Amino acid sequence: MKFSVTSLILFSAQGASAFVPSSMVSPATAATRLSMVASSTPETASATSSGEWSPSSWKDPAYVGKQMPVYDDQSELDDAVSDLERCAPLVFAGEVRSLHENLARACHGQGFLLMGGDCAEAFEEFNVDHIRDTFRVILQMSLVLTFGSAMPVIKVGRMAGQFAKPRSEPDEVKDGVALPSYRGDIINNEEFSEDGRRNNPHNMVKAYHQSAQTRSETASSTPETASATSSGEWSPSSWKDPAYVGKQMPVYDDQSELDDAVSDLERCAPLVFAGEVRSLHENLARACHGQGFLLMGGDCAEAFEEFNVDHIRDTFRVILQMSLVLTFGSAMPVIKVGRMAGQFAKPRSEPDEVKDGVALPSYRGDIINNEEFSEDGRRNNPHNMVKAYHQSAQTLNILRAFSTGGYADISRLHAWNLDFVEDTDEGSRYRKFANKVDESLRFMKAIGIDTADPTFTQTEFYTAHECLLLPYEQALTRMDSTTGKWYDCSAHMLWVGERTRDLDSAHLEFTRGIGNPLGVKISDKCTPEELIRIIDTMNPNNIPGRLTIVVRMGAEKVRKNLPGLIRAVQREGKSVLWISDPVHGNTRKTESGFKTRDFDAIRDELRAFFDVHDEMGSHPGGVHLEMTGKDVTECVGGNVDEVTEETLGSRYHTYCDPRLNGKQALELAFLIAERMRSRTGLPPLE
After folding, report:
1. 3-state secondary structure of 162
2. Considering only CA atoms, which of 320, 336, 323, 473 is closest in space to residue 392?
3. Residues whose CB is less than 8 angstroms from the CB of residue 606 and which lie 6 or more positions away in sequence, other chains included
């Protein structure tokens, strides 16, 4: 996604008002990263050799740490700092360098710096309207200043981190009672009490999460939180009507705890914005007319413990590599959608899991309960939704930086693909294909096309997940203030799964009223008549780009059942995008007990999908894969570094279903690209 937050560089005075005594680690140290927007992975801070600078060298006794709070519990401070060290960066090196370049020009009289914002941000005062209003005024001021100065105005907001404040006196006295001074919400509370004025290190973590929301919030217009409409009409909560069946929904044992979690989510900023959603919708509409190809990929299920920047980067990179190959092969735009920043919940075949005669609720994803097989671990915890929200905010922040910060440079993607083909046989079709791409890039440069232009270095990237946990989805549903339409701001696109797509389902009722592009997964169980009724429910106005049909059947069932479904859609004149999910219908268990998928079966289902569309004269519009950028061994097969049943256990890390590794996913992309090449009338690569 093209993300405009870098036009308002976020500034805080954390460097000017420090946080902890010199014997302790500061959150500024914890947040310091060597960002990998344009190169390597961010690394957490560690001291260098004595005498050199490091993120922790400020602790040297030679330096005086003024305005630093004292924390009364070292272990509590260590826990908070450790939490921050595991968090994703809030800003990235490419953005920082961009600001530096702008300020360098201003140093030579070629720019004007405008900085503005609150004296100090506060937890209680945080809301979307406040951020929007401050952001808007800064933009208004910059327009006036640009016109008056006839030079660029650099816009910097005192926000997303401006929490701490220096104080003239260490204590405040009221009615003869002396308590520590209020130093900003990141340190203590304004409430004049011993508990309120206690320096709480976990406030730093809370400030981090609010800053992540603030950064996201500068991307678009203000949404309004969900509220019910009159009886009988759609509203974000109408799915609760007893007429609708809520399958695959967890039961929470404490209603007040659930209400608290939902209330927290309702106060959170949107994760995505209406403008981004509309951009995706427009791209999908073109794909409906044969002018695009949808690539969806990502984890089976995201997990709290597995979250790190490397993992997000690696999956993002493989999706971009695949998209480059597919763009060349199909000669059409590829729409990139990640199964990430929200893909936590998973449907389950059985409500309970039994081990050694003990039955406990099934693991339904970290947003609901824990994988640990214990009563406490398998308890449905509503506050996991809030934790999932904050992890999703970090993931989106990383993705937005990657997509616009130079990491998506087309030359870099092609170089990575060349690394992949180096592992293939000499003269393989993969090498021939990569050589063709290389020739095209050389030709563009030769005729003067600037491949350093943002068109070649930035990309649009969207997120999607299964719409399963409706309390979470409802809490993040907002009304767009510019159009009056409702959007589920947890993701750009949502799909309804095979297990929850019944015509009387609460999930169909919820999704029919939101403005996001939607998907629905169908297997061989879906009849043509049922499919038409589902389409009428989810896309009653037959809007192109609104609905994607995700086919998951297995190769033989695709050949048998898909023609009738396509024929019914063509007969009724319905506008849908057909894509293949070739992984879910090809899951099996090995004799050693591993759940796996065969690469050959996945390839065969894709081949069947394309064959049927060739026969029906319809557009095979995309592919949906459970995959990861990590070098896992979860699916058997593949011609590059083949995974066998004997090697499955070496790097089998999935929290749920088996995923294609990066090389297997890229190999599939080359195979699809070859097929798309023949559909465009180009000769096969000899």
Report:
1. coil
2. 473
3. 580, 582, 623, 668, 671, 672, 675
Q: Are 1 and 401 in contact (CB under 8 A)?
A: no
For residue 474, the number of C-alpha atoms closer than 13 Å in the C-beta half-sphere is: 21
pLDDT score for 686: 56
**Could you give the C-alpha distances from 369 to 53, 166, 366, 450, 477, in angstroms and in order?**
43, 42, 5, 50, 23
β partners of residue 521: 550
Q: Give the sign of the dihedral formed by CA 149, CA 152, CA 156, CA 157.
A: positive
Q: In sequence order, what E strands does 142-214 have?
A: 153-158, 171-174, 177-180
Furthest CA-CA distance within the chain? 90
The pLDDT value recorded for residue 39 is: 38
3-state secondary structure 518-536: EEEEECCCCCHHHHHHHHH
Would you say 436 and 414 are in contact if contact means Cβ atoms under 8 Å apart? no
Q: Average per-residue pLDDT in the chain?
A: 87
User: CA 267 from chain center: how many Å?
Assistant: 20
Phi-psi region of 176 (alpha: psi -120 to 50; beta: other; left: phi over 0): left
Matching residue, tokens 């920047």: 309
Nearest-angstrom CA–CA distance, 560 and 553 = 10
Instruction: From 478, 545, 540, select the one nearest 514 (Cα to Cα).
Output: 478
Least confident of 27-36, 162-171, 204-213: 27-36
The structure tokens listed for 34 are 């060597």
521 C-beta neighbours (distance < 10 Å), count? 21
pLDDT value at residue 1 = 38
DSSP codes joined into one string, 320-331: HHHHHHHHHHHT
Closest CA to 381 of 246, 257, 248, 267: 257
